[in-house]
Write a structure and sequence with these properties.
Helices cover about 15% and strands about 40% of the residues. It contains three helices and eleven strands; from the N terminus they run αβαβββββαβββββ. Strands 1, 2, 3, 4, 5, 6, 7, 8, 9, 10 and 11 form an eleven-stranded mixed sheet that branches. β2 (about 50-55) and β3 (about 65-70) form a beta hairpin.
C-alpha cells in the first residue's frame, strides 16, 4: 500500500504544479474591445460586467487567479485640456475584504494578518503623481501605492482609449509585508501579477 500511495501523491503534486484555478467569469475573461481609438477627453462609467481587477498568486504547487469584487477608479481631467492625459490624475481604491478566489479556505487566509490583514487595513489605494505618454495609447502612470499600511512609489504602464483602460503590474508582495513564506516546499512566488481591465460603457 505504501508503494502505491507515494507515487500517487507525487503524481498528484506534479499535476497540480501545472494547474491554475480561476474565480473570473466568462465576461471578465473576455478580450478587450477591438479598438485603438485614442482617448478623446470624455470620462465614461465603468461597465462592471466586463471589468475586473484580478491577480494570480503563484506557488510551486498550484496557481490561483483571484479578483477584487469591490473597487473604485477615477480619472480627473484637466479643465482646459481634457484630452491630454498627461495633465490628468488617476485614483483607485480596493476593498480588500472583497477579495475572491475559488477556494474558501484560501480566501479567508488571504484576509489574515500574514497576508492582507483586512481587519486592520481594509482598503488599498493608488494615487497618481504624474502621467507620461509613451507611444500610441500607452501611458506610464507614476503614483503612490498603499497596501497593508505600506506606501511605495510605483510606475504602472496602462493602455488608455475611449473604450477601455488596461494595465498590468507585478506586485512585489514581500516589500509590502504580504505573504508567509514559511510553507516548506510550497514556496510562494515573490511577484504577484495584477491585471486591470476596465471597460467603459458606450
Amino acid at each position: 500500500m505504501r508503494n502505491v500511495t507515494i507515487p500517487f501523491l507525487v503524481m498528484s503534486l506534479l499535476s497540480l504544479s501545472a494547474c491554475q484555478t480561476s474565480s473570473l467569469s466568462d465576461a471578465e475573461n473576455a478580450p478587450l474591445p477591438a479598438t485603438d481609438t485614442p482617448f478623446s477627453g470624455t470620462v465614461r462609467e465603468i461597465d462592471r460586467t466586463q471589468s475586473v481587477i484580478s491577480f494570480t498568486g503563484k506557488s510551486n504547487i498550484i496557481n490561483h487567479e483571484g479578483k477584487f469584487n469591490q473597487y473604485t477608479a477615477a480619472v480627473t481631467l484637466d479643465s482646459l485640456e481634457p484630452a491630454n492625459l498627461e495633465k490628468a490624475s488617476v485614483t483607485a481604491e480596493l476593498d480588500m475584504n472583497s477579495i475572491t478566489v475559488d477556494a474558501a479556505g484560501l480566501q479567508d487566509h488571504l484576509k489574515k494578518d500574514d497576508f492582507f490583514a483586512v481587519a486592520t487595513y481594509p482598503v488599498a489605494t493608488f494615487e497618481s503623481t504624474g502621467i507620461v505618454k509613451k507611444e500610441g495609447n500607452l501611458y506610464g502612470i507614476t503614483g503612490d501605492l498603499t497596501v497593508k499600511g505600506v506606501t511605495k512609489m510605483v510606475t504602472i504602464d496602462a493602455e488608455i482609449t475611449d473604450d477601455y483602460l488596461s494595465a498590468q503590474y507585478d506586485f512585489p508582495r514581500a516589500e509590502f509585508g504580504v505573504g508567509n513564506d514559511a510553507y516548506g516546499e510550497k514556496l510562494l512566488e515573490p511577484v504577484v501579477p495584477v491585471n486591470v481591465k476596465l471597460v467603459f460603457l458606450k
